[in-house]
Design a protein that fits this description.
alpha/beta; three-stranded antiparallel beta sheet; 15 strands; about 475 residues; globular; homodimer; about 15% strand; eight-stranded mixed beta sheet
């Protein structure tokens, strides 16, 4: 009997597979007796135990009948499966969700994509590399692994983490919340997905700021939301321009508009809350980097002014800690709490217990805020270096958006259209610069050359060097026009 | 000016909140000048720096105008928000998803709920407590934290973990998969939710085994699936009884039917694959505890026979490791790969990087399979003790379902109806026994008294003691009839 062993894994498993293939290929017919174990072992040059193990396995899986000693017979009827044709081409979309996802998702335009081969990447979303955090976090994880229950965690999140979040929110974000109002999630993206499932049916209207975070738009559109945008000016969302008929949901970034950097003014905040109350709209407040404000203490969150319990507040540890952590939280209105906890349960039963426990302790024992202060200091220096560098090479040719917070700056090239912006980015690459256009963050991008410069991944020295290259590139590019 | 500090957090934050409250309450009118900082500091008995910090914060948030020195004036118009009425009662469901979730979800019937105050809980889903695993995992996490990229992980999962999974599947589950076929998820529940979103529109038909895992049913129903069930006998799903018109999806547990314990026979496996091919149905293979088989090596998975690429294979580390880990994986047909990766991206961008890296190394370096062997040995002993105990006290009054795998056994009380079963469970509680009915795992429960006994959380000695109590309870209960 000819058997071809494939060399993957232990011998008995290889032999089992080879025998199955022989049966399916008809090389051993149904009802036929398999070779005696000793004989096959000799033929193949393997131990008899290997053959015995393979026969035993075939017997357990129903391929052969009989007992060791009296011979093993191939069980009838074993219908040969057709040969496997792995279909590599995508099939037609199988659901409306999948159909929308194929249309909407644009993985090339997602923040955080690296540009290979550049020396200085002004990539947004990369974390600040911090060896002190790495070792602190390793310690916290090891500690949490030792004492955290291995059982299913509470879907709403570990009570200790929800308490730590509430305490943090009260002190740093002006938000008064109780642990029962908090749902721990796997980052902002899951918070948005849960919000979409709890609040939206296909066809429901959602207002986004223009510009906005494109991954949030995608998550809403994939749930069938009809997205419309309302422009942002230097005081944030133009609340006056909200539609006469209230949308189901309004998504805002009041502390630090993404990506423009504007802060939603107090009067607009109150106006927005009043609009939501009158029109029965929900507000999703994405407080993605409210911690990092450089001119004053962080502004209190919109949620802290919410009287009608219309605001769903989203916080993330992707910026304050690092993105691969995948932890964040929602503060939800009491009347929707059950729906959010249920939706989280349906999605994944709850977030990883050990990570939650480690983070709870890191916050409660002060390590988290010490880390925030260090990060804040470092980011402030990098931001100053970038601003200074931009001023140095601007000579009236750049317009830097005023922004007192975060981890990025928006810069416009004066008198350049979007196509010239793309050309500038391409040129910059040859100077070793990885630059990112602002256009993905618009539903209808303006015909201007805008850049989103993330400064989290570069040191002050690197930023200084990069800005020298930036200036040279700008001179070269504009001279040629 | 009367200001009430609330004692939460730093003084300047308390003062900021108190001043806002005073403004909103109209106690400081719009356009009015706030007290001089020195004066207020004296009045309140706080340092002038505290008052300065609070005024600075109010200025940053737009509550006051003016500069230090020239006085701070309350900005007009500050519209007072209405007092916060937290609505504790649930609001009407806001989406079809939330509406279905409210109807379908029954958190009382979810496996793994503890019964307080019992001595021996035969709870399903609790992990085997294992100090060796705890310390090994703490080491792996600390190591992974030190070398894993803090950046967003790949949505599909870390390549190292996908490779380790493929290697494991080839050796232990007979499944030939490439890393590109694997999607790392946060456990079986997320795998099912993703499958529902990728494959199902509301109204689509799904066939479940009867009995089945109720959390899977919920996840499908909440996505709007029309669930029908097909009975299971001792050879697994009765494939002959599948509907003439093919459903969109068929969910099966071929290696070890949950909860009955049956193994799907080879001929039915081939018949099921042929049915799926002919009717264009997808098959979700939930291989939730295929690793733990006590009479022979684990059976090869259904996916290993799949010729038409119709099987979506789900594996989890909740059983093999522990549930709070929240990691599992899908092996998906090539033609749906993009949709699954996209759906995972939309849900949460990807699973936690450090955990994935730790698990990849734990599998690749052999720690995982060493742990499996130890667990297998322990579970085998516990299972034997439970079987022996049941036989001892049965005297023809119990029917134990034949099952050669897993972490639980199904037992029927002969000649007892479902109501008597509930009464027996209540009685058993007074004997210190935490027992669980099988009824939640049926869409239409039979009128018989069935128990699902999980033996993972009890030692052999505990099981022996528990079985003595079980026998006494059984005698007492049946004598009274």
């Amino acid at each position: 009997m000819h058997l071809q062993l494939d060399g993957r894994g232990p011998l008995h498993a290889q032999l089992t597979r080879a025998l199955k293939t022989a049966v399916f290929a008809g090389r051993v017919s149904q009802g036929a007796r398999l070779p005696a174990t000793r004989q096959l072992a000799r033929e193949l040059g393997v131990s008899r135990n290997t053959v015995l193990a393979a026969y035993e396995q075939l017997r357990a899986e129903g391929f052969v009948d009989g007992r060791v000693g009296s011979g093993s017979y191939v069980t009838p009827p074993v219908q040969a499966p057709r040969p496997l044709h792995a279909v590599e081409a995508p099939l037609p979309a199988q659901s409306q969700f999948a159909r929308r996802a194929r249309v909407v998702h644009d993985h090339l335009r997602i923040p955080g994509r690296g540009i290979p081969g550049v020396r200085w990447a002004f990539q947004y979303g990369v974390p600040l590399t911090n060896p002190a955090l790495t070792s602190a976090w390793a310690r916290e994880l090891a500690h949490a692994a030792a004492y955290t229950s291995p059982n299913y965690p509470a879907s709403q999140g570990l009570p200790a983490l929800r308490e730590a979040v509430c305490d943090y929110l009260a002190r740093r974000r002006g938000v008064q919340a109780e642990p029962q109002d908090v749902v721990i999630v796997d980052g902002t993206q899951q918070a948005v997905a849960l919000t979409a499932r709890v609040l939206l049916d296909p066809g429901d209207e959602v207002v986004l700021e223009e510009p906005h975070y494109n991954a949030m738009r995608e998550a809403l559109q994939i749930h069938g939301a009809q997205v419309r945008t309302v422009d942002v000016d230097r005081h944030g969302l133009q609340v006056d321009a909200l539609p006469a008929r209230g949308p189901k949901l309004i998504c805002v970034t009041p502390s630090h508009q993404f990506p423009s950097g504007a802060v939603l003014s107090l009067s607009r905040r109150l106006q927005l809350l009043e609009y939501a109350r009158q029109h029965g709209s929900w507000i999703l407040e994405d407080d993605y980097d409210g911690e990092f404000r450089y001119d004053a203490r962080p502004l209190a969150a919109l949620r802290s002014l919410d009287d009608g319990d219309r605001v769903i507040y989203v916080g993330t540890f992707s910026k304050a800690m690092f993105p691969s952590l995948r932890l964040g939280y929602l503060v939800v209105p009491a009347g929707l709490r059950g729906d959010f906890v249920n939706a989280k349960w349906q999605d994944d039963f709850g977030s990883c217990g050990i990570q939650q426990a480690a983070l709870a302790r890191f916050i409660a024992e002060g390590g988290f805020e010490r880390h925030l202060r260090r990060t804040w200091k470092t980011l402030k220096e990098r931001r100053a270096a970038l601003l200074e560098g931009l001023q140095r090479c601007s000579r009236g040719r750049l317009q830097v958006e005023d922004s007192q917070a975060g981890m990025h700056l928006v810069v416009w090239l004066q008198d350049c259209d979007a196509a010239q912006g793309e050309a500038f980015i391409a040129r910059a690459r040859s100077h070793g610069l990885g630059l990112y256009p602002i256009s993905p963050y618009y539903l209808s991008p303006p015909d201007r050359a805008g850049l989103l410069l993330g400064y989290c991944g570069l040191s002050v020295a690197q930023i200084n060097d990069a800005m020298t290259a930036f200036g040279a590139c700008l001179d070269e590019f504009l001279d040629e026009r």
